[in-house]
User: Fold this.
Amino acid sequence: MRTVQHGRPQEGAAQDFGETLISLRDLNFWYGNKRALADVTMDFPINRVTALIGPSGCGKSTLLRCLNRMNDLIPGTRLAGEVTYHSQNIYAADIDPVEVRRRIGMVFQKPNPFPKSIYDNVAFGARVNGYDGDMDELVERSLKQAALFDEVKDDLKKSGLALSGGQQQRLCIARALAVGPDVILMDEPCSALDPIATLKIEDLIRELVKDFTIIIVTHNMQQAARVSDFTAFMLSAEDGAGRLIEYGPAQRVFTNPEEQRTEDYITGRFG
Assistant:
């Protein structure tokens, strides 16, 4: 199987967004006979935070999972259109989906550490992928990148399940970082956390984007405005399929949206 190669990102259609790392062209997605996404075309810029916002059921999480083929794991799903990463179609027959998920990591809504030690949580993916470097150094570096090392450095043998919710989420981020991705997908990573833990994750996102491309789904308008460089607003049509309504620099989308539907959602008139 051919694997996804690193390389210069393609120049996307939205040139004012900078270099494009992931592109969607006429993306449609079905769960069985139900279409969940309709004709989504957009570019995700490299080393930027892109937030996907919109009401529940508008396809945000489905779109996110299309970006690293997580939806492949759901029986009866079907995708049409193109998803390119470093200019390669990740749904091509000779692309290894496991390699895609290594390069495009994911952090889920609910922290999901393994019932293992903090150390083994971080090392797990690297071991599975045959990492032959200095594991101690990799674990330390990943925990530092996730802003967790100072809090756990004396307790690396402690179960990851013994950590607080916010620490567990940062542990999951460290686990994702340890396998060497260049994209991190986050599906409402703060929805189960208290305000203080949420702020730490938001600060971490702004730090990580210096080295990674981050795409986040959030219901929290204030969070999207705080952490994202670009914001995409999605909405379901009458047929229930999610569509991209507006996409642009976050400051413009939140302060001067081009679409009335975007303004209505942001100001709380619906959704």
Notes: The domain at 15-111+183-266 is CATH 3.40.50.300 (Rossmann fold). Residues 1-15 have pLDDT under 50 and may be disordered.
